[in-house]
């Protein structure tokens, strides 16, 4: 209804209020962007994400005035809030990487609070933007969870700015290390490394684990070689889950129950492997 009113040429009170609301949304978004890397932007990131989603959806409906914001809009909004995915333009809030020399200087000296806040804000948005470019990767997703937890700890004053910055740096170093391990590798090896890292660090907390995942990699190569479509069908997912379960059962026998392994296999295929394969197929198998 908001979209219908806002796109109307009438001058009723409802139309005026709807247009004012849409304009207020646009002004709020522009104001947020104009603040650059102001530290206090950190408090409102999630609010702005939702506002951008709602505003964008209303604009789409305004271009199609015959339809209103029905069930599909609200279903997508709930899905958006749960997934916490940023729109593309907000991934570019802070793109400049902060040098290690700058971080060393700030952490080793008593830097002014204002400068420290600015660097923390820049670093936070820089790291967050990178992580959101690959949200289905289990390693990126885990680092994102810790990044958000870190922000909450700072907001609630459980940690100070210097600790915040040091922890941000540790998360970025972890991300870099992971990226170096998968750089230049074929798709099946990248996926294998992500699964191996996720299971040994997040599922079992056993750094010595080194999964080979031969059946899974073989099935991935088969799908990539086919290249008929960039869509992974339910039957493909079933084959991937079966192959991954076989590998995990052989390599992790006794560490997790068969039911736990089955759930883990299905989760990794649904949330990561399938999406990564579709992206690789659309990029020519890279």
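-> sequence recovered:
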């Amino acid at each position: 209804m908001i979209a219908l009113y806002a796109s109307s040429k009438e001058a009723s009170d409802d139309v005026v209020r709807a247009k004012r609301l849409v304009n207020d949304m646009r002004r709020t978004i522009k104001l947020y962007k104009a603040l650059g890397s102001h530290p206090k932007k950190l408090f409102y990131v999630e609010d702005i994400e939702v506002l951008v989603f709602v505003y964008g959806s209303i604009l789409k409906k305004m271009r199609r005035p015959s339809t209103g914001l029905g069930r599909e809009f609200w279903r997508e909004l709930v899905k958006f809030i749960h997934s916490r995915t940023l729109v593309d333009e907000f991934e570019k809030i802070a793109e400049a990487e902060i040098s290690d020399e700058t971080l060393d200087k700030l952490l080793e000296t008593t830097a002014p609070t204002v400068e420290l806040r600015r660097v923390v804000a820049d670093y936070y948005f820089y790291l967050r933007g990178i992580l959101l470019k690959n949200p289905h990767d289990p390693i990126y997703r885990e680092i994102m969870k810790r990044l958000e937890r870190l922000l909450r700890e700072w907001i609630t004053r459980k940690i100070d700015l210097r600790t915040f910055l040091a922890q941000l740096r540790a998360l970025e170093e972890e991300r870099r290390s992971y990226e170096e391990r998968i750089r230049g590798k074929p798709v099946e090896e990248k996926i294998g490394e992500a699964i191996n890292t996720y299971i040994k660090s997040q599922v079992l907390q056993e750094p010595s684990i080194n999964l080979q995942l031969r059946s899974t990699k073989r099935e991935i190569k088969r799908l990539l070689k086919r290249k008929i479509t960039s869509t992974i069908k339910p039957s493909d997912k079933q084959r991937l889950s079966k192959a991954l379960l076989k590998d995990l059962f052989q390599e992790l026998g006794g560490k997790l129950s068969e039911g736990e392994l089955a759930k883990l296999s299905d989760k990794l295929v649904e949330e990561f492997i399938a999406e990564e394969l579709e992206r690789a197929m659309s990029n020519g198998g890279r």
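Residues 100-182 form one domain.
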